């Protein structure tokens, strides 16, 4: 019990020290042109029973503000049509409370505070200090088939590059696209994570 | 004030936050249930559900809660995390299998069970506020022992908190296993001074089970923090019945035990000038 009390105390102390993104910093980061200048490398997140859950790529984004900024791509192996593409600020290891500045959700659900609803429809989340990621809109420049599941499988490279372009990220000479290793995991819905115990 | 004053809010709640069920593409055996709840970042809390052969409804989060906590930086091998996770599951009456949190209930009680699952998932997600970077946590005794042993080139593979399957399928998780220079795998359990009773109980239970599974005595080592005389001699002797016992303060003896051939006569590894009473 003392260990848990200590963990709570440490977490409380750390929370006080975290740097948090402000609205003006987020705006500045979005408006400036940024660069990705390295290959997109995918990793696999596994459950404790070693089953794959998702494939993920986290690519650093160079920016003039010298902030820790990443383009984070997540594709659930059970639902490859419901991928997520995130412009993330901050790194907890450097005492920054991460902020999801923009998040593109492919064919996913969401409800805006004003009642606008997306049901398995593509939308993109905004971010502010006050509302976090509560508000979204429908982006118009993301190439995809809106059907669930899509008749034509997603072109992940096209989605990645369209999202990067929307958030003002240039792709430099060292940028290399690699396809996510979804073919390694068989059919969608084929993992135990999808099974209801 | 009456309810009509907030009728528009209630109507919006009923519309935007109602429970819904949808089929799942390519999976005729399960349905997806949206709960009207959202995680803190606006993503919806959804359940996967099926009805089993005994007409019970079984619903799961598909591993989302655990995945989100790992994303938040939680070390799932950390015993503090494990304790909090398990206690939260217990409080909400939820079960877990391979990272998937689930409930099972008769259809007549299904609404209550699913609602409890959705509420419990949000409570589990709140554990994220306790996730701090490793450098903020300070090193535990197990971390310290592991770091030190890793720094010794003579040592082979060191595995942190590995599951060790005993006979009859029973699984124990010592703090680490260490491959000695002679190629033997020694189970090491660290016992810190911050919670002596818990440390003693855990080490004694772990190695008691290992002994009953015929894991050789020379492959069982308890490492205790603090000074030798700060531990009750009776506890140290009891641990000595099920494992060798070293003290981090006298780590040279621990290293000698692990790195040199032969096993000491006395299972309690203390310097000759320290006397440990037989009882007390």
List the helices and strands and how they pair.
The complex is a heterodimer of chains A (197) and B (280).
Chain A: H1 2-17, E1 19-20, H2 23-31, E2 34-36, E3 43-46, E4 52-60, E5 69-76, E6 84-89, E7 96-97, E8 99-111, E9 117-125, E10 136-137, H3 156-166, E11 169-171
Parallel strand pairs in A: 1-7, 2-11
Antiparallel strand pairs in A: 3-4, 4-5, 5-6, 6-8, 8-9, 9-10
Chain B: H1 7-16, E1 20-24, E2 27-38, E3 44-51, E4 56-60, H2 64-71, H3 79-91, E5 95-97, E6 100-106, H4 110-125, H5 134-137, H6 141-150, E7 158-160, E8 164-165, E9 171-172, E10 176-179, E11 185-191, H7 196-212, E12 220-224, H8 233-242, E13 244-247, H9 251-259, E14 268-269
Parallel strand pairs in B: 11-12, 12-13, 13-14
Antiparallel strand pairs in B: 1-2, 2-3, 3-4, 4-6, 5-6, 7-10, 8-9, 10-11
Helix pairs in contact in B: 2-4, 7-8
Q: Describe it for me?
A:
The complex is a heterodimer of chains A (197) and B (280). Chain A is an alpha+beta fold and 197 residues long. Helix content of chain A is 18%, strand content 31%. Chain A has one domain. Chain A contains 3 helices and 11 strands. Chain A has a 7-stranded antiparallel beta sheet, with helices on one face. A two-stranded parallel ribbon of chain A has the order 1-7. Chain A is globular. Chain A starts with a helix and ends in a 26-residue tail after the last strand. Chain B is an alpha+beta fold. In chain B, the strands form 3 sheets. Chain B has a 6-stranded antiparallel beta sheet, with helices on one face. In chain B, strands 7-10-11-12-13-14 form a 6-stranded mixed beta sheet, sandwiched between helices. In chain B, strand 3 and strand 4 form a beta hairpin. In chain B, helix 2 packs parallel to helix 4 and helix 7 packs parallel to helix 8. At the A-B interface, helix 1, strand 8 and strand 9 of A face helix 1, strand 2, strand 3, strand 4 and helix 2 of B.
